[in-house]
Amino acid sequence: MPDLSQPAGSRAARHQVQNEDLLFEISSPGKCGYQLPALDVPAAELAHTRQEIQYFPELSELEVIRHFTRLSTWNYGVDTGIYPLGSCTMKYNARINELVTRLDGLGDGHPLQSEALSQGALRIMQLLSQYLLEITGMDAITLQPAAGAQGELTGILLVRAALAARGDARRKVLIPDSAHGTNPATAAIAGYQVENLKSNPGGTVDMSSLERQMTGDVAALMLTNPNTLGIFEEDIHRIADLVHQRGGMLYMDGANMNALVGRSRPGDFGVDVMHLNLHKTFSTPHGGGGPGAGPVAVQRELSPFLPIPVLATRPDGSPRLDFDRPRSIGRVRAFYGNFGMFTRALAYIMANGCDGLLQTTEDAVLNANYLRKKLEDVFALPYPTPSMHEVVFSDSLQAARGVHTGDIAKRLIDYGFHPYTVSFPLVVRGALMIEPTESANLAELDQFIGAMRAIAQEAQATPELVTSAPHTTKIRRLDEVAAARNPVLRWQPPPCASS
Amino acid sequence: MAYPTNFRYTTEHEWVAAPAAGAKSARFGITDFAQHQLGDIVFVELPQVGASLVAGQAFGTVESVKAVSEVFAPVSGRVTAINADLVKSPELLNSDPHGAAWMIEAELSDPAQSAKLMDSAAYEAFLAQQEAAH
Amino acid sequence: MLAELGLPSVDELFSHIPAYCRLNRSLNIPPGQAEADILAYFKAAAAANAPGFTSFLGAGAYHHFRPAHLDNLIGRGEWFTAYTPYQPEIAQGTLQSIFEFQTMICQLTGQEVANAGMYDGSTALNEACMMAARVTGRSGLVVARSVHPQYRQVLRTLTQFRDFPTAEVGFTPAGTCDWDALRAAVSDSTAAVAIQSPNFFGNIEDWEAAAEIAHARGALLVAVITDPVSLGLLPPPSSADIVAMELQGFGIPVGFGGPYAGILASRQKFVRSLPGRLVGEARDPDGRRGFVLTLSTREQHIRREKATSNICTNQALCALMASIFMATYGKQGLRELAQHNLAKAAYAAQACHNAGLEVLFPSPRFHEFVVRLHRPLADLEPSLTQAKLIPGLSLHPDYPELGHALLVCCTEIVPRAAIDSLAALLAQR
Question: How far apart are CA C203 and CA C190, in angstroms?
Answer without folding.
Answer: 25
